[in-house]
What does this fold into?
Amino acid sequence: MAISKNKLGLWTSTSLVVGNMIGAGVFLVPAAMAPFGSISLFGWVFAAIGTFFLARVFSGLSKMLPLGTGGPYAYTREGFGDFAGFLVGWGYYISIICANSAIAVSFVSALSTFFPVLGSNPIAGVSVGLIVIWLLAWINTMGLRTSGEVQLVTTILKLLPVVAIAIGGLFFIRAENFHPFNNTHTSVFEAITHAAAITMFSFVGIECATIPSGSVENPGKTVPRATMIGLVITTVVYLLGSVSIMGIIPAGVLQNSATPYADAAAIIYGSKARYWASAGAAIAAFGGLNGWTLIQGQFPFAMAKDRLFPAAFSWQNKKGTPYVGIIISSTFVSLLMMMNYTKGLVDQFKFLLLLSVLTTLVPYLFCAAAYVIIRFEKAHLHTGGWLSTILVGACAFAYSLWAIAGSGQSSVYWGFMLLMAGLPFYVWVMYKKKKDVGDSKL
It folds into this structure.
């Protein structure tokens, strides 16, 4: 009974998907999209369609492997074996560490609206960043249910200002602000492709409900529903928010805005609304960091159970939480976060974030292929018709491949090098695994 109470339900699982997808970055995306013109709205649509196929893939995989803790890693390993599973897991784990360090920095940046010293004093900024990293590490060691409740509350709180601006802004839209339609001086297809290349990263996290699936109540039903509900909520929020902000603020002004949601809030609700919009960004970062802290414990835990990661990552406390993995991961996050505040290391920090781009997309590619393979191997589960399986898998694979190409040559090159850097570690892990098996036979 104690174990079932510590499992995630539908809404906490949904909040994990929504909370990890809608991070602090969403508050800056409208400004990044403004130079494209209103054609950029189609970028959201195309990215949402591609992500829909990925959501179908993860939903299908969670039904076929309901206890596949580790999500993308578990599915890749099931479809392609230990080597592919390790490479996907290795890259994905590093991308989580890099992303969490960036989220911690964005949290401090959002708070600087209320406490300017955080933006001018590196020591103060680092201190607050470390406090939030380790506060959430402690919360996540209290059990999945506790971290899930925090995730649910922060997701609701972060959605309130975003939804208020998205809906309230519809009454302040001026049609002339949507002109020009295509400001890129390229074809419509090229413009949409470039816009979608930006928006697709806002959908990263669609897989999050699958990662702790072994600790989800009735995962075969809960995870697919949470994934699809999370996608719908996120898409509506993204699209309505972009329409409202682009309709309220002229493109020339918007593209130079550092706080587009706060600027829109001031127009809709008055100058003081800037503060609650900034508070929304801080809560978004806090909630996103909480959700990804949960993932940074559960993901290596799954690999360690399969003896493809150091055994320490599988050690659990009385709450059933992989506390050692959370501590180790939070230490790495802390070090990378401090790099951002150290002169001379900022470029290295940005470089690490660049590397993480590809390692969040490669797992999608492998999972799309594994979806078809596992479906054929587990035909008795009747998770859908053959034609629909192949169609969904092919569309998800094509979208993932296109997303990788759209991430840029530099990201692809260095991301590939990062994956290859894991090879010596894999050799060591497999050697130790075989040695332990040999010793056990003696």
Summary: The mean pLDDT is 86. The first helix runs from residue 2 to 5. The two ends are 39 Å apart (CA to CA).
